[in-house]
Design goal:
- By secondary structure, the protein is an alpha+beta fold.
- The chain has a single domain, classed as Cytidine Deaminase, domain 2.
- The protein has four helices and five strands.
- Strands 2-1-3-4-5 form a five-stranded mixed β-sheet.
- The chain starts with a helix and ends in a 12-residue tail after the last helix.
- Bound molecules: tetrahydrodeoxyuridine.
- The site of tetrahydrodeoxyuridine has 14 residues, from helix 2.
Length: 135
């Protein structure tokens, strides 16, 4: 798609490194994400589980919250790396990503080191958005 290979590779590498920090003692399923901001900066996240299971935060949302916390709100792509198959973002993460970047490119890496690129528009065709809050 629209991204040079070196950028895709850098995002995948960053997501892989972030996955190493995953706190996943309950599921054993480690996920890393790397979010490319419009200014070229990259923010990463991993899944952070909790003994109170429902408080778990996915890698994708961790990356978004980290970026927004440092003033970035425009995103071009996210790479997601899990332990086995290519893992698409869960519904909650799709909604959070869509708040900032409805046209985001979503790079998914599989266990054979092959990647494919989807768009958030395809993954979440009709997101809830701020426009519905207006009367
Ligand atoms: N998880 C993510 O971090 N991202 C996803 O897209 C799917 C699921 C995490 C949440 C939980 O820690 C573990 O994977 C199992 O669901």
């Amino acid at each position: 798609m629209d991204f040079p290979k070196d950028i895709i590779d850098a995002l995948i590498t960053a997501a892989r490194e972030a996955r190493e920090f995953a706190h996943a003692p309950y599921s054993g399923f480690r996920v890393g994400a790397a979010l490319l901001c419009s200014d070229g900066s990259v923010f990463t996240g991993c899944n952070v589980e909790n003994s109170s299971f429902s408080l778990t935060c996915c890698a994708e949302r961790s990356a978004v919250f980290s970026a927004v916390g440092e003033g970035r709100t425009e995103f071009d792509a996210i790479a997601i790396v899990a332990d086995g198959e290519a893992v698409p973002p869960c519904g909650a993460c799709r909604q959070v990503l869509s708040e900032f970047a409805p046209d985001l490119h979503v790079i998914l890496l599989d266990k054979h080191d092959e990647h494919r690129i989807l768009t958030l528009t395809n993954l979440l065709p009709e997101p809830f958005s701020a426009r519905y809050l207006k009367d």
